[in-house]
Amino acid sequence: MQDVAVIIPAKDEGDRIGATVKAALGLPGADLVVVVDDGSSDGTGRVAEEAGARVVRHSRNRGKGAAMETGAEAVRLLDEGRDQPRHLLFLDADLADTAAEAAPLVAPVRAGEADMTIAVFSTTVKLGGHGFVVRLSRDGIRRATGWTATQPLNGQRCLTRAAFEAARPLAAGFGVETALTIDLLRKGFRVTEVEVPLAHRATGTDWRAQAHRARQFRDVARALAVREPAVVSRLDRLRSFRRP
């Protein structure tokens, strides 16, 4: 059953994207891998194509949420004429060979038991101190929905096409996972966590890593701000004051 499209947002991952694509192409039911080269300055797109992926390029970096939407739109166009749209499996570009272990994320969606699965890595790596962003996301999801996520920022997710469309437009940048979870749970979609032996590159502690975590924090905070009832209520009141 060829019913899964793998979508991989990627920026400057030329050293690992080839292995990730090859592993993803071996997943049961995955007959399409789309890599969204999000403004890379290295050979990410070329390496991905050589490994067997369809590549869509952004001329400039537009962020993870935009890359996910671009990839999903490419799959939608390729799905025209099919009886059923493919399920969408999102994977990070730096999983390398471990991407071959992502099949359990698809099974509950394929069986109709879940509308979105979220990976919980059974093998953890040192994350260089970004636990404060995880807590921000986890606490925000719990306040908004009552559900506690184990790894709320995990980008390895499988969704039905219907669930993905219900969550659009996606939140910007690194706020996309937090927003996806909140928006789908609020709309009554079924979200399930699945333990998988995946692993990506550990986050360092140099200035680049710290800047990355700062962007994560900013994007997650923004995604939560517009989903917090108190904030939304204030925005609604401001809009009503501005109406003639």
State the main characteristics.
single chain, 244 residues, alpha/beta, 7-stranded mixed sheet, 7 strands, 44% helix, transferase, Glyco_trans_2-like, magnesium
Describe the structure.
With 244 residues, the chain is an alpha/beta fold. It is built from 9 helices and 7 strands; from the N terminus they run βαβαβαβαβαβααβαα. The protein has a 7-stranded mixed beta sheet with strand order 3-2-1-4-6-5-7, with helices on both faces. Helix 2 links the parallel strand 2 and strand 3 (54-58). Helix 1 (17-25) packs parallel to helix 2 (44-51).
- What portion of residues belong to β-strands? 15-25%
Q: Roughly how many Å apart are the termini? A: 56 Å
Question: Which sequence of SSEs, written as H and E, runs from N to C?
Answer: EHEHEHEHEHEHHEHH
Per DSSP E runs of 2 or more residues, the count of β-strands stands at 7
Short description:
This protein is of the alpha/beta class and 244 residues long. It is built from nine helices and seven strands.
Layout of helices and strands:
Elements: E1 4-10, H1 17-25, E2 30-38, H2 44-51, E3 54-58, H3 64-79, E4 87-90, H4 103-110, E5 116-121, H5 131-145, E6 157-159, H6 161-167, H7 176-186, E7 191-196, H8 207-225, H9 229-242
Parallel strand pairs: 1-2, 1-4, 2-3, 5-7
Antiparallel strand pairs: 4-6, 5-6
